[in-house]
């Protein structure tokens, strides 16, 4: 399955959507790395692994892996080959489970993808990042590669299941090394400073207007 994705699906996607990729030389070829990106569409999670030289793990709802039907097993194998990691998002401790899953990938020297905003942007702006990205970077020593995704919302607009043909651009920034904060993972101020530095880099790459507040979907209560 990994062979089919790398040598068949990836070239096909590049031929149809012709993504522009900048800064791929900034991606470390080995060692733990966190890809921290803006989030405009569901397709984002497929775009990043298909244009990087690394196998990138993203989180996925565990129910995608639970079906025992033939279709369900094929979907699970496909997602696993892409690098998706199942996590129970309905669990009250889903946030902790997500961080633990990411930490496991990084401690094994792998690459992990995360959207610091926590959800897709519905207004096109880049919103304040949650500090999970900082917790992972500080606890594992992984570098953070900021990623700017441009045009993915045109490929898969909100509410549309099937992707459209539209030009996408993926910009990889220089790796951010936070080893200067070794031993300070427990400091909320340090986690916020690291997260804000990551978000500033993402904003520079994506060209989005930055909003210093957490993104809320309609009907969601304000964050504490």
UniProtKB/TrEMBL annotation:
Gene Ontology molecular function: acyltransferase activity
SMART domains with a match to the protein in the record: PlsC
Organism: Pseudonocardia yuanmonensis
Coiled coil: none
A Pfam short name: Acyltransferase
Keyword Transferase tagged: yes
Full protein name: Lysophospholipid acyltransferase family protein
Keyword 4Fe-4S carried by entry: no
Keywords recorded for this protein, A-Z: Acyltransferase, Transferase
């Amino acid at each position: 399955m990994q062979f089919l994705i790398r040598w068949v699906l990836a070239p096909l996607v590049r031929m149809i959507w012709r993504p522009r990729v900048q800064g791929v030389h900034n991606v470390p070829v080995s060692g733990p790395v966190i890809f921290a990106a803006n989030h405009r569409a569901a397709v984002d999670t497929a775009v990043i692994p298909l244009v990087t030289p690394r196998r990138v793990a993203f989180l996925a709802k565990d129910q995608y892996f639970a079906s025992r039907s033939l279709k369900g097993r094929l979907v699970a194998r496909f997602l696993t080959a892409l690098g998706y990691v199942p996590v129970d998002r309905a669990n009250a401790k889903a946030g902790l489970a997500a961080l633990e899953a990411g930490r496991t990938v990084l401690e094994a020297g792998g690459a992990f993808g995360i959207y610091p905003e926590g959800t897709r942007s519905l207004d096109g702006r880049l919103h304040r990042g949650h500090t999970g990205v900082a917790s992972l970077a500080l606890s594992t020593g992984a570098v953070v590669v900021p990623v700017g995704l441009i045009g993915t919302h045109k490929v898969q607009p909100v509410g549309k299941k099937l992707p459209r043909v539209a030009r996408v651009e993926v910009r990889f920034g220089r790796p951010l090394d936070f080893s200067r904060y070794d031993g300070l993972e427990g400091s909320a101020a340090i986690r916020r400073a690291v997260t804000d530095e990551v978000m500033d880099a993402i904003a520079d790459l994506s060209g989005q207007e930055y909003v210093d507040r957490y993104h809320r979907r309609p009907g969601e209560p304000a964050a504490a």
